[in-house]
Amino acid sequence: MAKVLDLSLVLFVLCVSTAAIAMARNLGEESSDDTEFIKSSCETATYPELCFQSLSSYASEIKKRPLQLAETALAVSMARAKSAKTYISDMTDYKGITKRQHEAVLDCVEEMGDTVDRLSKSLKELKNLEEGESKEDFWFCLSNVRTWTSAALTDETTCLDGFGGKGMDGELKSLVKAHIVRVAQDTSNALALINVYASKH
């Protein structure tokens, strides 16, 4: 009787182990497929390596869904813009700042505020597409998303334009530029992924 119980226990353990290994393998394949989906989608972006780097950690949430990928890209860009706005706001107290630089910083803070607002609207509008609208409403919403995201990109460029000219060269300009360029790159990538989603309809 003991031998029968021992054999049953061994078989049970083997079955559970086999199932666990199979499940882990399936999860690994899904994760790999999801990551590959992001990588291939990012190849259409302006900055593919940055695109993949920014979004690959969200693979399990994105799965293989183009809409979720575009939403995540917008959310990442918006978070980056908020961070940049806060950072640049602190530059008003930068040591040795000139009047012209101070004005450029204030203008840039305003532009970044507009960027955050436009990206927020884009993200909200993109989420509305999940509710299954008519074809006409779908393209109207998508047009809004593209317009606002493009406008956000323009805001970021306008911020940098304020630091144009040799008289503005220096550490302050370099610090601001580093943050704004990264936001612009993320926004550009988000717009590309929005277009990838649009191309599937």
From TrEMBL:
Keywords: Coiled coil, Signal. GO terms for biological process: plant-type cell wall modification. Pfam families: PMEI. Transmembrane segments: none annotated. Residues 33-193 form the Pectinesterase inhibitor domain. Residues 109-136 form a coiled coil. The keyword Transmembrane does not apply. GO terms for molecular function: enzyme inhibitor activity; pectinesterase inhibitor activity. Residues 1-24 form the signal peptide. One of its GO terms (cellular component) is plant-type cell wall. NCBIfam families: PME_inhib (TIGR01614). Belongs to the PMEI family. This is Pectinesterase inhibitor domain-containing protein. It comes from Brassica campestris.
